[in-house]
Amino acid sequence: MQFCGTNMKKSGVQKIIFLSGTFVGSDPFELTRWIQTVAPIRGKMLAQVLEVSMKKGINSFVQDKGNFDPKYITLFSQSIGNSLGVKEFVWSSANHHFARIMGAIELLELLTPCEGKVLLIGHSHAGQLFALLTQMLSSSATLMNFIKILNEVKINSSELIHKIKKLKTLPIDFVTLGTPVRYQWAKNKSIRIMHVINHRGEEPIGGRFSGLATTRDGDYIQQLGIAGSDVISPLKLHRQLNVKLNEFLGAGVDLSIFKQSIKNRRRLHDLGINYLINYQDGGKIPNYWKTFFGHAIYTRYQTMLFHTELICSTFYE
Fold it and tell me: pTM of the predicted model, to two decimals?
């Protein structure tokens, strides 16, 4: 780990930011957003307290199973010699388009002050935030479509455009862990992308669902988090915005499209380097809770060294 940390530093990496995926963030069910709509003044303060408490509770319950908990972040930083800025970025983690758009914008704001190379490591749908970020950094047409929708929630579009212009030349390395094949990635000379997927089988396609209970064929959640698999937001405005975002991001909540997409069993992303890794977390007896259907292995302490070495051999050798 120290050797990798030294290589990262020599390669110009200044910050490493970890992102967890859906349902393990600060407001996975949008409870705090709902409170703010009911009580705009007092609700904001209460929402902040609830978000912190909710994330602490999730960290305590889930720990390192499909979640970058604070202990993981601290251990990673210490093991590479405390030589780089290492932190976790926490977003709402709600499972729909608009929540991911807002997460991507909040991430963009976090990156704005950065001047050196940044390494972003995201588990599960955190990778969709990365894909959205590449779209905003690379396509003015896509950005304008997003801004039309963001204007409805009073996002300052001119300020957002200014921040994006500043970040267009920032070197960013994206690493996704178990991210479903969903949002499109956009090319940019300043970015590099690699995807790591838990997989067993000779063909680069997802497994048969007869092996779901024993995690026979790898990461089944990576296969399931596809178009049409979103959750309906409890907030009316967000539901309305998600309908509009379907036009640019594909189906959000749509059972028929979900059924159709799941037949494709897609593993590989169109842009970036794809690594299919056999983590050997399959079993002969049901182990879905222990492995979370093959989706939990990426954030476990025991895979930290492997992933760090893989990232370094790909980007910083």
Answer: 0.95
